[in-house]
Amino acid sequence: MHSTANPTALKLLDACEHVLCEVEALEDVTVRRVAGEANANPSAISYHFGSQKPPAGTISATAALFGFATSAH
Hints:
Shape: globular
Number of domains: 1
Number of strands: 0
Largest sheet: none
Distance between the termini: 21 Å
Structural class: mainly alpha
Oligomer: single chain
């Protein structure tokens, strides 16, 4: 996994937060939507975070801040 100190990784995390502010359901947060918001290629998510999802803790914590219920895995 690459460091989140990378500017692109930080843009992706910021974009994820922005998308969470816009959607009505957590299911509406998609790789393409987050990447588009960050002006990045969707594959940048897997490059920086090792999968097609930002770190689960980051998404869960951010989602909770915006009032989304997340299931515990």
